[in-house]
Amino acid sequence: MRQNTTGLLLVVSGPAGVGKGTIDTELMKRNPRIKMSVSATTRAPRPGETDGVHYFFKTPEEFEQMIRDDAFLEYMHVFGMNYYGTPKAYVCEQLQAGNHVILEIDVQGARKVKETFPNAVRIFIAPPSMETLKARLIGRGTETPEQIEKRTRTAFTEMRDMPACDYIIVNDDLETAVNQLEAIVRAEQCSVAHNHEIINEFLGGMEQC
After folding, report:
1. 122 touches 166 (CB < 8 A)
2. Is the CA virtual torsion 56, 58, 60, 66 positive or negative?
3. How many CA atoms lie within 13 A of 172 on its CB side?
4. 170 phi and psi, to 5 degrees?
5. pLDDT at position 208, please?
6. Listed residue (167, 201, 172, 193) closest to 12, CA to CA
7. Cα separation of 23 and 16, whole Å?
8. Edge-to-edge, what's the strand order for the sheet holding 39-41?
9. Tens-of-pLDDT digits for all 209 residues of the chain?
10. SS3 assignment for the chain
């Protein structure tokens, strides 16, 4: 008898600039069974982007048909221009193959995924402080002061979602944060919620004795 070998859906959210992408990338380097979810979008490919690797590129008609077919874990229409969504088929294919899938997404999308996929593991990446988060945003040097202020205000709103998550990781030190995320994966593989087959096998056997 073996423990559940089906993969985990890891829904990682948190404010912009908190380091979600860096943590996820380092975790995938350590474990080839951990994959990043590939989103679908109606925007045009950028130079160097490959269909099925960076995104699944769809026409608006194809995307809207997928919506009608209930083919997304979640989706959004950004500024009334382009669609973005998480295809169920890709995620389920990877999970059934025994791979863990990271879905790096905003808190609104994370709520939708949890509703559609209750076994998803929600992980919130938090900064050590709001001052540190703001300093990191400034340090990126990619946004104007006005944009940074907007992101900081948005971060306060997003932090309210922490109680709805299963785990919180404070990204003060990258190595520690990656180790904590790795520990969550190991713990969830042993959780009751992900091992109903073992429970049923044992209890079913007892009832037959």
Report:
1. yes
2. negative
3. 4
4. -90, 115
5. 44
6. 167
7. 13
8. 55-57, 39-41, 82-87, 72-78
9. 667 678 999 999 999 899 999 999 999 999 999 999 999 999 999 999 999 999 999 999 999 999 999 999 999 998 789 999 999 999 999 999 999 999 999 898 999 999 989 999 999 999 999 999 999 999 988 889 999 999 899 999 999 999 999 999 999 999 999 999 999 999 999 998 888 888 888 887 555 43
10. CCCCCCCCEEEEECCCCCCHHHHHHHHHHHCCCEEECCEEECCCCCCCCCECCCEEECCHHHHHHHHHCCCEEEEEEECCCEEEEEEHHHHHHHHHCCCEEEEECCHHHHHHHHHHCCCCEEEEEECCCHHHHHHHHHHHCCCCHHHHHHHHHHHHHHHCCHHHCCEEEECCCHHHHHHHHHHHHHHHHCCHHHCHHHHHHHHHHHHHC
